[in-house]
Amino acid sequence: MAAHRSGPLKQQNKPHKGGRHRGRGSAQRDGKGRLALKTLSKKVRKDLSKVDQRHRASQLRKQKKEAVLAEKRQLGSKDGPPHQVLVVPLHNRISLPEAFRLLQDRDTGTVHLNEWGSTHSFMLLCPRLKHRWFFTSARPGDLHTVLDMAKVADNILFLLDPLEGWDSTGDYCLSCLFAQGLPTYSNEENNLLGTLKISGYVRGQALNVNNLLHIVGHGDFQMKQIDAPMDPFPLNPRVIKSPKDPGMAMEICATDAVVDMEEDLKVLMKADPERQESLQTEVIPDPMEGEQTWPTEEELSEANDLLKETSKVVKKVPKGTSSYQAEWILDEDGESGGEGDEYDDIEREDFMEEESQDEGSEKEEEEECETVTIGESVHDDLYDEKVDEEAEGKMLEKHKQERLEEMFPDEVDTPRDVAARIRFQKYRGLKSFRTSPWDPKENLPQDYARIFQFQNFINTRRRIFKEIEEKEVEGAEVGWYVTLHVSEVPVSVVEHFKRGAPLIAFSLLPHEQKMSVLNMVVSRHAGNTEPVKAKEELIFHCGFRRFRASPLFSQHTAADKHKFQRFLTADLALVVTVYAPITFPPASVLLFKQNSNGMHSLIATGYLLSVDPDRMVIKRVVLSGHPFKIFTKMAVVRYMFFNRGTHGHMKCSFDGKLKSQDTVLMNLYKRVFPKWTYDPYVPEPVPWVKSEISSTVPEMDME
């Protein structure tokens, strides 16, 4: 019998492997030690710890930065190509040959024109600076040549008209250059810095040369040295006897003292670079700091125990007061009695005494006043011509919003074009605003990575003030006449004082140049009734500093969460929260607002409360609805949400019986943070009374 043989179209199955899977060892043996690139990188990354990863990332950033700096240093040197600068005029009234004549400074270096003798390019060699520049330009109106030369230029120098800046042609040229891309820009005032010498008397506390100096209205600076010249106005003038005639004596007056000041100059202190305070105001964020680890059960239990211990406070309350009501009752001094509030007592008492004196004086003035009938003024016809209708309309709208906020606090309407789950996705519900937990380190904004925070602000303040009281700080003593050498000061500072403004400088305490979150307690000034909305730009006078910022308003309570206020109310003291440099209390606070006419109006006064980024300002929104159908403790609520299909109707259960005239409210909360709008420059207000101020102009040494 012949055996059956399969044809060429028979299906061929894969052989069976005997039930054994290919393991990692066999794969490595077959690969003979070769690993894929991704596998190798993942293995190395897994073996590195978090500290090593952060150190490795820091090294890579440092290497890239050094490589960029090395490339920039080589540019224009003897080993690199010349520093090519493209000169572009942006107005038809600008004379390019005249601009090139100003750039061809023979005192700075040697000028070599190009071989064609054209005035559109030249080489500037400066052996003293060990640098060389090649200035070039294109024909006016030749846009394509400008774009081509901008691609290879190291810097572009734009020439502007002193009156109009740039014309339509220059604007079109800028648009094309911005779209193509511009090279790196330079620090334009680098050659406009110098050493400012300030002479005067030391007041308050001893002055240390290693501390920073704050010039009001111009910022913080470092000092090089402190000199002790002869006092130009001594009580007992120095008497010099004549060598020829011993009976004759001559008194040195103030003018003679100024002449001999350089002769009797004595250097008190010179700055020590290792001990000198840095000008760094912000923290450079590290992207690796964003990595977080989940806390263990032991850490969570310890945190809960610590929270319970710190939350127990003994208070004296009236009989019949519940525990919930007791939490909102302040102590006799107006605070919750926690640690670190002792330095606010004297400041708060003085503040309350001033308020009571002001109220008493106002009542006396009202009693002395009489009612007088005045006829119509002849200037009433011109009143409407001076009124800004647009500003009046905005003010009316703000008055309406403030009135609605008083009648229906925190109540908002659900938008119809956006789903409520999207509009309020950052909000959450709380069972109790007072007792519900909220982590102060949760979902912090990116700006919080730029600020400084103390581990214990109260202890740091106490230690610094103790060193000052015990005279542990070396420096110029109070009452000495000294000359301060302030380094890296712009020429604009001297030009400002040459116009007659007084020069006022303060020595900063340690850490007072660093940015953090400041909380201030303020009360509305009685003479100002204009509505002030949160996040409006205001002018702050906080201690010795003056700056602009857009603050948040919140209630001044003893709880760990503080409700956000949309307007600065007139009947309650509120807390103002801003990003600003650290200031140690006590410090007075004045809030001004710049009007449309340029004048500054005082709107609130108060004092500095704390420097605490962990103080939580919670914004509340209230959604309202009306019962549509009621079934004892169940009801269908409408007008709270608007959805297709159900029309926004929602079934709700309550702990009590609902009535048809009741309104259903839903409270939602989210934490809000101030905006980073800190600006140390404050524009000068329009003076109330025109007057001339005479003052001594400081001396400036250019370096």
From TrEMBL:
<feature type="region of interest" description="Disordered">
    <location>
        <begin position="1"/>
        <end position="84"/>
    </location>
</feature>
<dbReference type="GO" id="GO:0005634">
    <property type="term" value="C:nucleus"/>
</dbReference>
<dbReference type="GO" id="GO:0000479">
    <property type="term" value="P:endonucleolytic cleavage of tricistronic rRNA transcript (SSU-rRNA, 5.8S rRNA, LSU-rRNA)"/>
</dbReference>
<feature type="domain" description="AARP2CN">
    <location>
        <begin position="175"/>
        <end position="233"/>
    </location>
</feature>
<comment type="function">
    <text>Required during maturation of the 40S ribosomal subunit in the nucleolus.</text>
</comment>
<comment type="similarity">
    <text>Belongs to the TRAFAC class translation factor GTPase superfamily. Bms1-like GTPase family. TSR1 subfamily.</text>
</comment>
<dbReference type="GO" id="GO:0000462">
    <property type="term" value="P:maturation of SSU-rRNA from tricistronic rRNA transcript (SSU-rRNA, 5.8S rRNA, LSU-rRNA)"/>
</dbReference>
<dbReference type="GO" id="GO:0030688">
    <property type="term" value="C:preribosome, small subunit precursor"/>
</dbReference>
<feature type="domain" description="Ribosome biogenesis protein BMS1/TSR1 C-terminal">
    <location>
        <begin position="411"/>
        <end position="672"/>
    </location>
</feature>
<dbReference type="GO" id="GO:0003924">
    <property type="term" value="F:GTPase activity"/>
</dbReference>
<dbReference type="InterPro" id="IPR007034">
    <property type="entry name" value="BMS1_TSR1_C"/>
</dbReference>
<dbReference type="Pfam" id="PF04950">
    <property type="entry name" value="RIBIOP_C"/>
</dbReference>
<dbReference type="InterPro" id="IPR039761">
    <property type="entry name" value="Bms1/Tsr1"/>
</dbReference>
<feature type="compositionally biased region" description="Basic residues">
    <location>
        <begin position="13"/>
        <end position="24"/>
    </location>
</feature>
<protein>
    <recommendedName>
        <fullName>Pre-rRNA-processing protein TSR1 homolog</fullName>
    </recommendedName>
</protein>
<feature type="compositionally biased region" description="Basic and acidic residues">
    <location>
        <begin position="65"/>
        <end position="76"/>
    </location>
</feature>
<dbReference type="InterPro" id="IPR012948">
    <property type="entry name" value="AARP2CN"/>
</dbReference>
<dbReference type="Pfam" id="PF22298">
    <property type="entry name" value="Tsr1_G-like"/>
</dbReference>
<dbReference type="GO" id="GO:0034511">
    <property type="term" value="F:U3 snoRNA binding"/>
</dbReference>
<feature type="compositionally biased region" description="Basic and acidic residues">
    <location>
        <begin position="46"/>
        <end position="55"/>
    </location>
</feature>
<dbReference type="Pfam" id="PF08142">
    <property type="entry name" value="AARP2CN"/>
</dbReference>
<dbReference type="GO" id="GO:0005525">
    <property type="term" value="F:GTP binding"/>
</dbReference>
